[in-house]
């Protein structure tokens, strides 16, 4: 309620209200000033409202007092129950945990005012899950309530938790949530075999490394706590088998380490131990975490292929052994209870196998062709044995035959076959050491002997000294040799080996006499050097030859340049403007040229008729030959022309032309007058060459050259 001291109760004062919720949540009586709530209030939505009130004059509408501000607080009541905002919860705790082991802490939230009364004071309790777990009523911490809870007995627990406000008193509001608790595994159980003896049946044909059976120990634990390791206890038959763990099924897989043979042993018995890999020291007192079982394996008899007595057969035979000679035998047996006979044959793969044959019943191997060690030193092929009772059961073995060498090749001198001796050699001087080579496969310790052939032993030039270590020395037997008398000596050397039968050969060595200095260094071995002046060294000979080559090159270049210069001079003379000679690339017209003009006119121009028309073309207009004034006799021009005529007469390269024009005389005094433009009374500018175009297509090139050329005074000399 609002009241102003100026309000006398006569209705002259009006009260107004503004601020939070004015007109929507709160209203005021304008006359009495009473404030009323027009709807329900929720403290959790808005805990207080700030309002402003004022008293004004009804008539003047003016404030009677300053505006005053006041706050309306919403008083809390217990209208909200506690809520688990994070629920439902999931937790875990190891099995076999002691009492009071921490599991989880839950928390409930009450929206009521915690500062007013007990509306927000929450108390926790367990409605479901006892007697396994307990909860602290104030903190909400859940703990184990029973010892040694076993995961293998019960793994999952669902606990129902209640949170109640008003301190848990009667009338308080409550909220609930669930907590799903899982017992995690610990290694508290050893592996156990479900039975003490396992029986397995294994065929004797089982391959080494193959799995022949499985056994399994049961461990109720989970995960890595259930991982089992299997081991074979040393004892009877255990060395033939091995056992491993299948990681997916935790089974023990028994594998074969060695082949089984029913005829040798029909049954095996051994023990297998199963133990955990990951142990928990807290449970050692429970007992050993391992178990033992007995495995009995019965070997089943199978029809097996024959078995060779050796894994590989190695034989030897001499080369060139006669065909059909037995060199060895292979043996295979059927070890099954009902023994069957065996047949042998060669596994044909290539032509090499055809060198041998095998007896199908006895297994003896014999040669089928002559063998040559130098061609093939070793043969490697396979022999197959099959049972007569079951030919599909076969076995294979490798046979290696080494071809032994027979001494069939004589030894020979190793290179070189040629040596030299100095002219100033002394008696007993070693000029060459020789060795021998033999194409045969020489046995260890084979020796070669060297000697002169009988026909050379009486000659006083050279001898052979056998050092008895498979080498020999060629020694001189006289004092000095002369190239002028004999340049080459041929020395026959006989070499024998120590194999049987003994083989020998005569090898001829060539000994060249050379000129040497006092130290024995060879200076020259060429026969031409005998006739050279004394004291002329090899370097001097090379220098002389080099000078001769250079002189020959200079002469060749000089001749080439002279020919080129002569050719250039001839071309220049042909292109001289004073000759008035024009070269054509096209072929002449033959007899047609004689129809174009009268050759006789060149010899005597006076025979030309005044109005004679050309016979090769039909001229449009008649032109008269221009009369040129005679020129004086010029000796230089005459001599020049005569010289050129003489050069062309004796030049074999001058080409013959289609028409032959002869000139009785050219120059001053000639009826045709001078053909040269030199010393002409007129210049090129005064010349009119238009008449050339009237002479037909054969003179078109001349007409184009002289008719279109413009006069240039600078070119006139």
UniProtKB/TrEMBL annotation:
Domain of life from the UniProt record: Eukaryota
Main subcellular location of this protein, as a coarse class: membrane
SUPFAM superfamilies, per database record: Cadherin-like (SSF49313)
Protein name: Cadherin-12
GO BP: adherens junction organization; calcium-dependent cell-cell adhesion via plasma membrane cell adhesion molecules; cell migration; cell morphogenesis; cell-cell adhesion mediated by cadherin; cell-cell junction assembly; homophilic cell adhesion via plasma membrane adhesion molecules
Protein function: Cadherins are calcium-dependent cell adhesion proteins. They preferentially interact with themselves in a homophilic manner in connecting cells; cadherins may thus contribute to the sorting of heterogeneous cell types.
Listed InterPro entries: Cadherin, Cadherin-like_dom, Cadherin-like_sf, Cadherin_CS, Cadherin_Y-type_LIR, Catenin-bd_sf
Cellular localization per UniProt: Cell membrane
Gene label: Cdh12
Keywords, ordered alphabetically: Calcium, Cell adhesion, Cell membrane, Cleavage on pair of basic residues, Glycoprotein, Membrane, Metal-binding, Phosphoprotein, Repeat, Signal, Transmembrane, Transmembrane helix
Membrane-crossing segments per the record: 530-561
GO cellular component entries: adherens junction; catenin complex
